[in-house]
Every structure is written in structure tokens, then in C-alpha cells.
Amino acid sequence: MAKIENKKQRFRDVKQGKGQVMSSKQKSIKPRRHYATAGLKVKAFLTDAFMLLMPIMYIVFYLIMDGREGFAAHRLLGWIAILIPLVIVQTLFMYSSSQTPGYRAYNIKVIDEKTGQKPSLFGILFRNLSAILSLFTIVGWVMMFFRKDSKTLHDLLSATAVVTTDAPKT
Which residues face 161 on adjacent strands? Predict the structure, then answer.
């Protein structure tokens, strides 16, 4: 009975111009995002691996660790020396343009899921650090193949999304 009274009251309010009734669909409208597919993200990752990671690895292996034997003897220190510069370089690229070279090559970018704009410096840094941590669990990366929006664990943790830049604006 209370439900009928509530509907009558809303009808009266609309009729008298006091308010506008919004349907449940109108209340929950989110901007439509054109999420990047898992295939695009993998291609961008491979491009970044060759353009960003390989030069850093070369420098660490041969200039800092004095060859493969030095790296093998101090493996943990070597990986720290590789991952810290990688996170810094990726963070700088993403902070300046929301894209790394691989993301730019495949027309995708990182956005803040709530605002749809470029994430903050802290958000990007947190995303990149959690990407390194989710690499160790493997599940964090594999989950993008099973989600409709192709989000990884570090996207979910940092409230970011990878979207296509050439999609029509809606």
C-alpha cells in the first residue's frame, strides 16, 4: 500500500513541477568506456618490454653487474636494479601522457576509472608497483582474459582502466 502512495506522491510532484522523476536506469548511468582488449594490452606490454625493459636489463647486466655471472651471483639485487628504473620510467611516461610507448603504438591509455581523466602521480605509481607485485602471483595478469573489461589486478587495486583512444566519444 505504501508503494502505491509513494508513486502517487511522485506523480503529484512531477505534475506540479516540483521535481523530476528519474528511472533506475537514469540514476545509474555511467559513461560508456571503450576498454582495451586483452590482446591490445599484451601487444603493448611486449612493445614496452623491448623498448623500455631490454635497455634497462642490458645496462644492469653488462654495465652494473659486470656480465651474466655477476647477475647470477646477485640475482635479487639485479632484479631490484632492473625493476626500480622500469617503474620510474613507466610512471614518468604515464604521468606525462597517460601512455607508454607500447600504449601509444596501439592507441590505448590509462585513465582514472572514477573521473575518466589522467590518474594522479600517486595513482600511476601505485598501479605500476602493484603491477610488479601482481606479476609474482600470475593470477593478477591472467584475470584480464576472463573479465569483460579486461582489467588486471593492478587496475582494480588502483581504480584505473586501460581504454582505447581512437574510440568514438559518447
Answer: 111
